[in-house]
Each structure stands twice: as structure tokens, then as C-alpha cells.
Amino acid sequence: MMRCNLISFFGLFILSFNAKSQEQSNIKFGDITAKDFETKIYSIDSSAQAVILYDYGSAKYVTNTDSWFDISYTYHKRVRILNKNAFDLATIQIPLYKGENSEDKLDKIEAVTYTMENGEVIKTKLDKQSLFKDKAAKYLTIEKFTFPNIKEGSIIEYSYTIISPRSYNLRGWTFQDRYPVLESKYEVTIPTLFNYIFLPNGYYDLQPINVKEDFKAFIIYGSASSSRSESYRYNATLTHSEWVLKNLPAIVKEKFVTTLQNHISKIEFQIKSIDYPGEAPKPILSTWDQLSKDLLKDEQFGAALAEKNKWMEDDLEKLIIKDDTLATAKNIFDFVKNNFVATSFDGIYLNENLKKTFQDKKGNASELNLVLVALLKKAKINAEPLILSTRDNGLAYEMYPLINKFNYVITKVLINEKEYLLDASKKKIGFNHLPDYCYNGYARIIGEKPYLVPLFSDSLKEKKITNINFYNSEDGKNIVGSFSSTLGHFESFDFREEMSNSSKEAYFKKVKNGFSYDITLSNQSIDSLDKLDERIAIKYDFATAFTEDIIYFNPLFGEAYKTNPFTATTRNYPVEMPYPTNEVIIVYMDIPKGYKVDEIPKSIRVKYNEEDGMFEYIVQADANSIQLRSKITLNRANFDPEEYQSLRDFFGQIVKKQSEQIVFKKIK
Amino acid sequence: MRKICFLCTLFFYNATFSQNYDVALINDSLKENANAVKRFEELRVIIKSNSKAIVKHKYVITVLKEAGADLADYHNSYSKLQSLSNISGTLYDAKGKEIKSVKKKDIGDFSAVGDISLMSDGRAKHHNFYYAQYPYTVAYEDEQELDGIFFLPSWNPIELECSVEQSSFIVETPADYVLRFKQIAYTNQPVQSTEKDRKIYNWQVKNLLPVAYEQYQPHWDEINPAVYIAPSLFEIGDYKGEMSSWKNLGLFIKDLNNGRQELPENIKADIHKLTDNVSDNYEKVKLLYAYLQKNTRYISVQIGIGGWQTFDAKYVATKKYGDCKALSNYMVSLLKEMNLPAKYVLVNSGDYRNGLWEDFPSPYFNHAIMCVPLQKDTMWLECTSQTVSAGYMGSFTGNRKVLLIDDDGGHIVRTPTYKAIDNLQLRKVSASINEEGALSAEVDTHYTGIQQDDVHGLMNGATEEEKKKYLNSTLSLPTYSVEKFVYTQTKGLIPTVDEHLSITAPDYATITGKRFFITPNFFNRSASKLEEDKKRKYDIQFFSAYIDVDTIQIKIPVNYTVEAMPKNISLKTAYGNYSINFTVKDNFINVLRKNERNEGRFPKSEYQAIVNYFDEIYKADRGRIVLTKN
What we know:
The complex is a heterodimer of chains A (about 675) and B (about 625).
Chain A: H1 3-10, E1 50-63, E2 69-81, E3 91-97, E4 105-117, E5 120-125, E6 132-137, E7 140-146, E8 155-164, E9 173-174, E10 181-191, E11 194-201, E12 209-220, E13 232-248, E14 266-274, E15 282-283, H2 288-297, H3 313-317, H4 325-339, E16 341-344, H5 354-360, E17 362-364, H6 365-378, E18 382-388, E19 408-415, E20 418-422, E21 441-445, E22 452-455, E23 464-472, E24 479-486, H7 489-499, H8 504-513, E25 520-527, E26 537-544, E27 550-553, E28 575-576, E29 581-590, E30 595-599, E31 604-608, E32 613-621, E33 625-634, E34 638-639, H9 644-658, E35 662-666
Parallel strand pairs in A: 1-10, 16-17, 23-29
Antiparallel strand pairs in A: 1-2, 2-8, 3-7, 4-5, 4-8, 6-7, 9-14, 10-13, 11-14, 12-13, 14-15, 18-19, 18-21, 19-20, 21-22, 23-24, 24-26, 25-26, 27-35, 28-34, 29-33, 30-35, 31-32, 32-33
Chain B: H1 2-5, H2 28-31, E1 36-47, E2 52-63, E3 74-78, E4 82-92, E5 98-101, E6 108-111, E7 117-120, E8 123-127, E9 136-147, E10 162-174, E11 180-184, E12 191-195, E13 198-208, H3 220-223, E14 226-230, E15 233-236, E16 239-242, H4 246-256, H5 265-275, H6 281-295, E17 297-298, E18 300-302, H7 313-319, E19 321-322, H8 324-337, E20 343-347, E21 367-373, E22 378-381, H9 394-397, E23 401-406, E24 409-414, E25 424-433, E26 439-448, H10 453-461, H11 464-474, E27 481-490, E28 496-505, E29 510-512, E30 515-518, E31 540-542, E32 546-555, E33 560-564, E34 569-572, E35 576-585, E36 588-597, E37 600-602, H12 607-621, E38 625-629
Parallel strand pairs in B: 1-10, 7-18, 17-19, 25-32
Antiparallel strand pairs in B: 1-2, 2-9, 3-8, 4-5, 4-9, 6-8, 10-13, 11-14, 12-13, 15-16, 20-21, 20-23, 21-22, 23-24, 25-26, 26-28, 27-28, 29-30, 30-38, 31-37, 32-36, 33-38, 34-35, 35-36
Helix pairs in contact in B: 6-8, 7-8
């Protein structure tokens, strides 16, 4: 699933659309005439409720009073609002970073609403009294306003500048939106001092156009050799790059998409080095080897792993089982999970030092896993942290050491040559299991050898087996039987999470309510609810009675697919399911006493894409019993949009077959 | 139940905060079916004057298991008129041993503006010990200062699935202060005492067993003990008022919004042009309401007294937006300009909510609307929607008592009630099934009143693409597609929406060998059964009445004979009437289904009968016809 990123990287555009344009529209603020209102329906999307007419951004390096650089951003956007349902576009929120010593400065806000009244364009300006500042979080302030005089058909236009002190963080640009965009343009002007990597994403060609060079002198401090402490004149070469995309369709969320961020057309920037003229580049973006070393020394990541951590000793002592490394590792893992609470899942860095996390018994997901690594190491077990990007966070680049793309830390241990992957932040996860959202491509070891660990959803094995048995009761009056379903590991995890806020009684009440005929349940049990390494098994016995002359009976209970999971008739993006499918239902049934089989479903076997999947429904009957096996396998979790229709049809066949009935007739 | 619950101590209980919180001390009966136990709570409201009050809240909660962990979460809000300070807290282990206490830097501070408002001065503080060793106990304490009194806090000691060892509500007032209060599900009088120049009221509950949510239970605030208090004389900002009568509370609101109804000349000109030639007042109101809907939108800004005081009509006239108060006030202004008797109205909104207790005047309200009493009936207008019909309130504001603000003060009136006959869903399905079991169907549905609310939202709020996506995911058909959909609405006091759908479902009928299985009622099946409950605690309440009628005709392939038919049933009960009738004749399946639900409250002793009623409908709705090939 590295597809879209890598493709655009190497310029192998299988799915590339050409929206790039050399044509430059020269759009000036306020330049709106009656002609701009003539279009009532835009050909790009006839049912659009709003259209982004023009979306412009620019980034330029400027010197500041500290003789260093700020980045000056200018934004300008024009939107046509066609329908009241898009009125929310008239409310603008501008997030601003407010650090302790430096902050983003917002300036030159202009906002005008244009409406057509009696053939004339009426301009209504934003009243500056109506600008609000909301201190949303410690380092985040949101400036907000809403446009006055909004009607269906209005055009809104606004522009502002931000001076940002974060000179190593050149902001990226997202070209697509949840509304169609007629023109989106971004330009950046970077002194060659700042060496950036461009990271395009999505299905459009994002090679910059109009790349040109310019020269400018700045007065700045500092250098790579750091011998120079006075300010000096820096004659910079400026690189100017531009992207213009036109006629971009709206991007809309579909079922089974990990995150639209993997598909949306955008460009991001990563600083690689500071290249002082005449000096060797001062690397910022390092190599994986270097990054790994740095992270292991970083107070906010692995520094504590190299220390003695005596404060762990008392607790650790009780967890060590002599001469059994694996059992010790399991003990330590359980200790962290049972005693620590994950308070947030906010990235790979520590908010507190490890000792404090250890004492407080709480921390973010990264802190908990690093506590686990530290404990394991102290117990002389080979353990290392692994960083990854979760599915909802989008794909990380496997080749570039772009630390910002990673948002999650797990733990790897090596015992007797065998590798185990652990996550201490999720209470309901067993040893050597990970939550499904971790399976998002390559994870990276942070250790002496920072190698890649493949975590691909396509390679997962998830298997669910259900057994249902029906017998004639001894007196021949009732049908009695047993149901048992063993869930896959991921489904077991979800089930445990759900049960933490529910009870066994409530669960079986729901099960009973799911039957449309009278049935009594007994011996209900849920196995392995607390044995996290095991799969959940749901079991119960049941009793029911057949009385009618003809019985139509579906023996699959609630296990059959009743509706097609692929509801939409069309598809734009790949289908990204969390794991491949393997579901087996095995039914044994005594032919009910006093009845004979009148009709029975036929066996079928359907292949999906030859080897990619199969559905089989095999029925055998003899004079006394019926045996039925339904098996669904999909060997992949990811499918191309072109495969959608066949996938939908495949599930259509499953739904159809699984709804078939066995017909019994009373023997007269 | 109640007898056990309300063992109120009649002597004055001198509560102390530092007790022994060993979990072993909790009575077993309080632990049963509970996720947490409220060990102690004291809510103390100290009214200093007509404009100043201090609210001190202390509570101790033992969390027994993970499902109760939310109750260990501390959060409270503050704003310009209501500060929040002195937050402290302590964590105890199962034995009651202190583990740690709240540090200031661990208290989170957040904006509480939310998604609905553009801006408000609401903020919130939050803390959590994030402890994982169950059971454990948290104790929290905070203090709020009210700068201006309008609203006073209420005491609601019950939380879901949490028993209460003891909780008390203490109100201190100056000796001459006229405190008013209303008790719900609390039978005793408060213990009253006097200390120097202070009057003290004390309410208390002890040893309450946990309550669990029950399907179709009455409103929470009618069934659980609570005490509401309200001032008589009060001051907020530069305003003074009195609220021991609705008349006076209305006068205060009138005073607050006085002089805020002046319209700019251009707007006056607009509306005169629009309606001067119209003689019928009803038509005038409709035209002006359409004018409002076309020219304004909802944007909420709530700061300080602005939570109650409206922005003036000029603000809306220039910006073309406002919150419920500003838009309602603006609409009143428009109508008054045309000499129509428009009134500003405050309402406690929310689906099927109670409006207010008429015997206890207090500012219950969270929303503003307006009305125009006309000769025949009163036109009610919701001013924050751009699509709703003039005169229609729906389940959000309909069927409840509201406060109408007139020149002589406040009056309690009722918004329109929507009866079963107003809330219809009449559906006609004309379908055919071919030999392969594929269904194609034309479905025409006429929705009215509250039953059109959702579909009104869909047709007015979604793009064609979104409608298609929604329609293709919402029907309970195995695999299907909605080929065509058309919506038309008719405005009116009871608005209607007509929906036409063309549907194909390739595998609708199940075929096994020579048999054909058809569940003909494929469009309107009761969604759920009620859970059996031997120990039902609360009465059963159905909040809205409605009628569904489904007429289904399905053409089936020739040369098939009926082997099995579902039972026709007809049920007549106090909760509703239901009947379904299946016939097969001349290659047509015909189904007539009628489901009429009554609103009302039914004693808990009837719960099992209602479960059975739901069960029978559930089964009948899924009735299956079996055909065999000749």
C-alpha cells in the first residue's frame, strides 16, 4: 500500500491525471464583476454546493530582528457558495502557533462578501470587531470570523498573511478539498541556504513548474562552523517553485479507506540541510542510522534506556522468573499493561521523563512502550522500540527518515532468536499481538541497526471458526444443540474492548433477541475474556422445537452475511480492509425427528480473482443428518478501485447463498 | 423501591470531607449492579446578595470497575460571569490510603466554544488521575463564583449505574432572601435552620441503589431525585429582575431586549415592498418568514450577558446572521413593522423534552423562537432554519410549554402538539420479482409531521451524491441499488415530503431448488425487540404518536404455487394498534400493514405485555411467503 506515495515519487504515474497548467491566471483581490456570477452550475460538478474558485498560497523567507529567518505566508482564497448547505464555508478558522518565546503573527486580514443585487455586485466587508480569538490549547490559538451578508450564490474572498518563526518548517499545501477546486496555486521562494525535499502525494502530477532562480542579500547570523558570531551579509540564491492545478474534483470519504490523507493531492516539505555558502551542508534531515542514534540519546525518547534506572529494581525483581526469559518478558509486559494507563496517543515523544511515568503509572502510548523497553532491557532481555505510522495517520516514507510522519511506538523483543512485537498501551492486547491500526506498511527499529519491520495488512492471518450442532432431544420433541464461535485475534480484541463496558448477561440478552423464533439459551460462556493471548470463544447451548408441517430453516444463525458490506455502487479509491478474511462455519444437524428433508441448498464454490479469494458452501446429507460448511477466504486486505465491482459481486453471491434454506417436511 | 431509596436523615448532618474511604466499608447492596459508588457529596450554594453567590462542590467517588471510570473524570466549565477556582483532588487506593493529589499543572484548560458557536466565553477545566487499579476512590472539590445571578445550580445526586452513600445540598442565603425551590422525587421538606443573619436549607439522600437505563423510560429529570432552586429578586450585569412569577421573569427578558428592535430603513423598504399589497395576515407572515430564511443564517456568538440578551435587529440586518435570540428578535421586528402582533418566546428545546414546570418559574430555556397570534391560530416560527415550514415546530420545540414575552410580561403557552394523525408515513410499493429472484420496485412514500423530519433533513441538507450514498446504505436489503430518487416537499403547518425511489435488488428472493422465499414487507420492519426485564424500575413512556401504512404489491413469476403464508395478525392495545395482512392472488402478493403507535405513559407492570407486543410485530414484519415451482 505504499502505492500512491511511491508512484508520485518516482514519477511513474499509472493513475496520474493532468491538471497541471502553464497558464497563469492573474487573479487580484477584489476583482469581481457581474460576470463571475453568471455560472450557475459548474461543469466540474453539477451538484456541487460550493466551488473553490481560487486558492492561493505563497511562502517566502524573510529576515527578522534576530538576524535569522522567518517565513512569510500569504493566502488568498475565493469561494462561490451555491447552496445554503455550504454556508459553513463562510466561517473561517485560522490556527496559529503560540509558543512561549515565539509565535505566528497574523496580519492584513481582508475579507469581503460579494452578492448580486439588482444586477449589481454588492461588496460587504468584514467588520474587524467580528474577529474572535479562541485560545484552544496551550500552543494553539484560533482566529475566527464569519463573512457577513451570505446568501446562496455569494462569492466570498479573503486574504491574510502569517509571519512564522518556525523557519525549518515550511508549510505544505493541499490542493484538493471536500468541494471542487477550479484553481489551486502554491509558490515557495527558498534561499538555497535551506535545502528542502519536496514530498508530493496523490494522483496528480506535482512536478513544480516555473522553477526559477533569483538573488537577494540578507543580513544573518551564524554559520555551520559556528565560528562566526556576528551578523554578516549573505548573498542568497533564491529558488522559486510553483504548482498550479486546475479543475480538481471534490475528495469524498468512502468506506474501507484508512485515511483520505493517502489519496488527497498535496505537497509537503522536509528540510534536509542548511547549506551555508562555501561550507559543507549542515544536515538537519539525517540518515536512519543517525536518526536512530539521536533518538536513543534524546531525553524525549530513548535517553533513559541507556541508564541504570535503579528506580525500577524493586518492581522488576518480582517479575523475573529465573532461567525463563520468555516468561519473564510476559510478566513484564503484563505488569506494564495492568498497572499503567495510556492517557493519550499523541505521537512518539515523551512528555515526561521515564522515571516520572514509572512513578505515576500513566503516560502516553510512547511512554508506556518505552517503560516496557526499559524494564525488559534491565532484565537483560533484548528489546528495542519500533516506530510506525498508524493507519489513520497515513503512510510513512520507508526511505526518508521523516520523523514527523511517525506517530506510534511499539516494542520488539528478541528471545531465543525469535522476534516478538508488543504494544503495552492497549490493555486488551495479548503478547505478540498488535492492534490492527499498526499494520500500515513498514515500521522502523530504533536501535543499533535501524532496520525495517514489515507490517502489512495483506500478510495478516485472521481466522474465525464457528461450529453449530443440532441434535434431536432424547424424547424426540425438541431440537437441542450447541453453538461455539472462536473469533480471530483482531475480532477478539474488539470484543474485549466492547465487553469492558458491558456484561456477559447483556451480551447474551442481545444474542437471544437476535432470533426471530422462540429459543432458549443455556450454558452461556465467553472463554478467554481475560486470557489476552488466546482467541475469544463464545459458546452456548440452545433448545427449540419444530411444530409446523413444513419447516424452512437457515442453520447459519446470526453468522450469515445478511447485507453486502460494499453498499456504494461505485468507487474512487482503493479498498483498504484491516486484514484478509477467513471465516468458516461448520454445521452438523440431526434430521429432526418426524421430519424428512424436502429440499436442501446446493453446494457451490466461487473463486474470486483466481487465487485471491474463495467462497464455498458445501452441503452433504444422508438419511439421518446434514453437514454444511461455509467458508469465505480473501487472501488480501487491499484491492484496487477497478476490483471494487467484482468484490461487491463476490459478497453479493455470499449474501445470496448464505440466505438459502433447508426445507423439512413432516412425515405423515 | 422508593422506600429504600429515600432514607433521609432528619437531623442536621455535619458532613466532613476527610473520612475513611476503604472500599470494604461500602455496603454490599450498594455495590451490586454498580460501576461506581458516590461515597459523599456536598453541593453548597452560598447566596451573598441578589447578584453574588459562591458554589462549593465536594464529592468522593469510588470506581469499582473499568465501566465506571468515566465518573472519576473531573470537569467543570467557567465563563466571564462564572469563575472556577480552588480545584483540588485526591486519589485513594482500595484500602482508602492516599496515593496522590491534584497538581495545578495537571489540570487541563480548554476552550469550550465547540462546533456550534462561532464564539463564546465558555471554557472548561479537566483532570483525571488515570488510575488503573480497581477499585479506587477519587475526591474532588472546587469553587465557583457567580458574578450576577440568573441561573442557580441544581442538585442532581444520581448518576447512571452509580449508587449513592450520601449526598447533600446546602443552600445558605441572607435572612431576608426569598429562595424558591422545587423538589423532584424527593418527599421530605429540607431541614431549615438559622445562623446569625443566614438562613440554611439542607437536602440529603443516603444509600440509594444504582439505577440503570431502561428502554422507553420517562424523562430522567422526572424520575430521579433532584432539587432545583431559583431566586426571587436577582441582579445580573446592569439589570435587575424578579422571577417568582412568569409575568415578572417575562418582564425581565423584555427589559433585557428593550430597544433592540429597530430596523434600518432599507430593510423596512424591502419588507413593505414585499407585503404591503398582501391583505391576508397569514400570507404576510409566510412571506416575511421566507424573507428571513432567504436572507439570514444561524451564527452563534455568546459572551457574558449575551447568553440571554439578544443582538439588536440592526446587527442582523447588516451582517445577515445571528443566533436564535437575534434571529427571533429580528423576525419579531420585521412583523411588528407590518403591524403584526409578533411575540418573542423562550423554550427548552430538544427532542421530546419537557418544557418547564409551570409551578416553578425559573429560566429553564436553551433556545428562542417566536410566534404570531393570528385570528384563527397562532403561527410558530423557528428562525434558525432556512428550510423548515412556517408554523411548524417538530419534535425539537413542539408539544411543550414555553414562555411567551408580551408587553405586560411573561405568559406560559403551549407550542403545537403533533398527534398520530399528523405524523404519517404512507407507503405504496409496487414491485416485481423475476425467476432469478431479482426485485425491482417503485416505492412512493408520503411523510408528514414529525415523520418527515429526517427526510426533510436529507432532502434539504445533502447533495445528490450524499443522498445516493445514504440511500444505498440504509435499506435492509442484501445487495441493492437505488436507481432513482425524487423528493418533493409541501410546506404547511403540518409539512409533508413525498419520496419516490426506484430500487433494484438482484438477489432479493432466496431460491433453494424449486422453492422461492420472499419476505414481502421489505421496507418497513420494526427495528428491534425490547429486552426482557424482570425488575423493570420505571414506567414506560412513548413520546410520540404516529401512523404507518404500507401497501405492497409484488408481481411474482407465473407457475408458482403458494406453499406457506405468514400469519395475518391484528393487535389492539393501549400502546398502539397493529395489523398485517398477506394475500397471494393472480401472481400478485399483496400486503397491507398498519402500525399505529400511541403516546403516553404506561405503568411498569405492563412492561411484559409491551415486550410481547413488540415481539409479535417483530415476527409479523418478517413474515415469509414460500412458493414452489409447479
